[in-house]
Write a sequence for this structure.
């Protein structure tokens, strides 16, 4: 077949809400929602009074961004939660950001516990060409605990999930509003 798509191996499948995969240490990964009703689940340890951002960008069979394939939505639960629906922190619709093909969730953690992240297709569809790239930005501590508003303060951190790394496909500039809350 000419121009046929080859299925990319999804390193994290199979996962379920009861057996989520460990969130990749890099905070960046790719996956597929490869069949109807398929969702991908990951877990991480979080601390109270912290915020996190999760971005999921839909891709097609070639890896290019696409809004005509998967329509990703995101949910976050305590790992001990048996499946509250909707998730306590969730996106209601796919593509809720100003970036093409991207769904974004920002959440405040209210407990010191393990959390589950779920990635789903809004319609419950799924096929091998329903790819996505995901990124989690979360940190447990930052030094110093206060920084000048006008900039110039060097910031370092003890990152529980990821260091401040941004993939080439999603260049970012660290701004104060992205830093975790420190008390």
């Amino acid at each position: 077949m000419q121009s046929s798509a080859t299925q990319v191996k999804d390193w994290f499948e199979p996962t379920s809400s009861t057996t989520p995969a460990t969130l990749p240490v890099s905070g960046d990964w790719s996956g597929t929602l490869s069949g109807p009703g398929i969702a991908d689940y990951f877990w991480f340890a979080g601390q109270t009074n912290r915020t996190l951002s999760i971005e999921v960008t839909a891709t097609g069979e070639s890896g290019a961004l696409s809004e005509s394939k998967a329509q990703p939505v995101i949910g976050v639960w305590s790992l001990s939660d048996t499946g509250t629906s909707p998730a306590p922190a969730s996106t209601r619709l796919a593509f809720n950001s100003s970036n093409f093909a991207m769904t974004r969730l920002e959440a405040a953690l209210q407990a010191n516990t393990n959390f589950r992240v779920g990635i789903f297709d809004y319609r419950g569809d799924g096929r091998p060409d329903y790819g996505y790239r995901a990124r989690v930005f979360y940190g447990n501590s930052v030094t110093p605990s206060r920084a000048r508003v006008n900039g110039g303060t060097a910031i370092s951190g003890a990152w529980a999930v990821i260091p401040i790394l941004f993939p080439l496909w999603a260049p970012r500039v660290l701004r104060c509003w992205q830093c975790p809350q420190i008390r």
